[in-house]
Design a protein that fits this description.
Elements lengths: L1 E6 L3 H7 L2 H6 L1 E8 L10 E6 L8 H19 L3 E6 L4 H9 L3 E5 L10 H6 L5 E4 L12 E2 L5
Parallel strand pairs: 1-2, 1-4, 2-3, 4-5, 5-6, 6-7
Length: about 150
């Protein structure tokens, strides 16, 4: 089984790195954002997407660019599962995997205790498994799985 671990930079990436034992157990690769401090998981093949902010003028262009790049990575790597902690730049990889009939596991941000992320609201509809890290989030995502925080 091959797993794609997908997360934007910053806190979402740090949460994803809490799953490092899974990365070491399975054939895997990481997809994250290209930033000034580009993170790289030690020993993991890493691909970079453009950082996206929905308030920027070139938002649509960057999302299209990320969708194209995600498709190329997907065709090359052929993951069976995508595990994602968000956000925007990772949506194309998640949706491409779902369209190809693969599994999507989404982990809502640890920082979200009483309100959802925009990405979480979208991917909740598509995820095969959707995890929340706070029991209070089950009122927003009633079909989610609560197992506590990944920290």
């Amino acid at each position: 089984m091959k797993i794609c671990f997908a997360a934007s930079s910053g806190g979402h990436y740090e949460q994803l790195m809490m799953l490092k034992p899974l990365m070491e157990e399975y054939d895997s690769f990481v997809v994250t954002e290209q930033t000034d401090y580009s993170a790289k998981a030690k020993g993991e093949k890493t691909y970079y997407m453009s950082q996206v902010n929905r308030r920027e003028k070139d938002f649509v262009w960057k999302m299209l660019k990320n969708a194209w790049k995600s498709l190329q990575i997907y065709k090359k790597e052929k993951p069976d599962v995508v595990i994602c902690t968000g956000v925007l730049a990772m949506i194309p990889m998640c949706l491409i995997a779902k369209m190809a009939g693969k599994k999507l596991i989404y982990i809502e941000s640890f920082a979200k205790v009483t309100s959802p992320t925009e990405t979480g609201k979208l991917l909740y509809k598509f995820a095969d498994q959707f995890y929340v890290q706070w029991e209070s989030m089950l009122s927003i995502y009633p079909k989610a799985i609560y197992l506590g925080g990944i920290y």
